[in-house]
Design brief:
The protein has a single domain, classed as Trna Endonuclease, Chain: A, domain 1, CATH 3.40.1350. It has five helices and twelve strands. The chain has a six-stranded mixed β-sheet with strand order 3-6-7-9-10-12, sandwiched between helices. A two-stranded antiparallel sheet has the order 1-2. Strands 4-5 form a two-stranded antiparallel sheet.
Amino acid sequence: MNYPNGIKKGIDNKYITYKNRGMTLESDLNVTNQYYIENNIAYIYKKPTPIKVVKADYNSKGLRVIKEAYYSEPSTTDYNGIYKGNYIDYEAKETKNKSYFPLSNIHEHQITHLRHIESQNGISFLIVRFTTLNKTYLLSTKDFLDYIDKMKKSTIPISYFESHGYLIKEKYIKRVDYLEIVDKIWRLS
């Protein structure tokens, strides 16, 4: 029997799962956000990276093709939008490491941006996926900043995500249903 989540027994009679093979956190979030938009739950989208076009040509179909461009300014965070009248802004990251998340994955200007959102009482957080463990956590900006300001370390151990973050359970349609956790943390339900 083929189960929807791809679980079956292998040769050694252990369960094998094929879910998430080839999927990334970003694509899972995009599918989830599209569900939120289509069902009028929230309007949250991936922010485009700002670029400055230097050279462009037209192809045979008359469409403009960018030949040369550069990043015009550093991007802030990955996603933003509105949910229940509240501004939401978050950064999404993946790591293959099993025991910690390297802070080198987040740039200083992104941390500054999250500080600004937090200071204006916006809803902001990190979504971090430990790909090898197939675990995805939401960590509020408050807890993230508290850790980096007090600990002065170059990594955040997974134990910090386990104790201060929220494990996001994987679902079928809303693959990374982070708004369920946002409702709990910020008491929006």
